[in-house]
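Data deposition worksheet. Section B asks for the primary sequence of the deposited chain exactly as it was used as input, without tags or linkers unless they were present during the calculation. Section C holds the resulting structure in token form. Section D is free text for depositor observations; keep each observation to a single sentence. Incomplete worksheets are returned to the depositor.
Section A, Depositor: J.P.
Section B:
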Amino acid sequence: MSFKVAVLPGDGIGPEVTAEAVKVLRATGLNLEFEEAPFGGAGYDDCGDPLPPATLELCKASDAVLMGAVGGPKWDNIEPITKRPEIGGLLPLRRELNLYANLRPAKTLAPLIHASPLKEGRSMMDLMVVRELTGGIYFGEPRGRRDDGNTAFDTCLYSRFEVERIAHRGFEIAMQRRQNLCSVDKSNVLETSRLWREVVTEVATQYPQVSLSFMLVDNCAMQLIRDPSQFDVILTENMFGDILSDEASMITGSLGLLPSASVSDPKGDNVFGLYEPVHGSAPDIAGQGRANPLAAILSAAMLVQYSMKDNETAARIENAVEAALNQKLRTADIFERGCELITTTEMGDAVVRNL
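Section C:
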């Protein structure tokens, strides 16, 4: 039986980088079936809805979802705001598919160490941010405006259940890595963070092999710059994880290199997930062949690892990416003197050759 992947190319450079990820997946020889559907701004243009009902049904009927970036200035001023790609597309898709665990690895690749904004030798890192994805301030109610629009408010809300399930996922991942987990919060100020810390402490008793530490989010942001190598797994809530994972990804040298997975509860041996690059839709370079497809390709590797449980093929894809970089092939965002500047499609071809 084939493994069905829903492909949501998205907006801007999304279709370009997603096409290269699909190309690489096809080259693995795995028994995969792909079906595309509009989503985000493309969904709004197609039928007036950033999450068309048919797209949602396709995702629910698939084994995994591969997605490009969504949004852009073209759709920033749509009213009501629930029709905008991120608010009306991405957030409800995560909620409908119960994608509560966002996994964002950040790893320094030796061929790109010079691209890091940190001094050489200080930028080496291999960490995983485990971010709670369907709770917190992005989803809390009530929210809105009052006083004729002059006062705005959002609600940060977490339940014990939400913290428990993401904590278990974080500890499980730490068990598979270096068995070191740092839980990040703002418990000196926020009541939600105090609950977070209490629950994580309780869950930790079930994982005695894992070394647990706590860190305030502002200190974590500083420590990522001071010494990113100290981190193995960072477990944190929605907004903090959004910010810290982007910081970690930039330390590696480019947002164009970082993949992500958003996964639901395991069902037997299967883990349903949505896989996407961390970067945005970059409409300013769309259609120019300048986009870096490596984050999308590495997201495809995460799909193979987490949803297909095929660590060997996932490692083959990752090794093929690093081999292309060792051959001094570069897209515009990571180009440096002495390397060959190539297009989006050419980088995908290079990964396939090395695969």
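Section D:
The two ends are 24 Å apart (CA to CA).
The mean pLDDT is 93.
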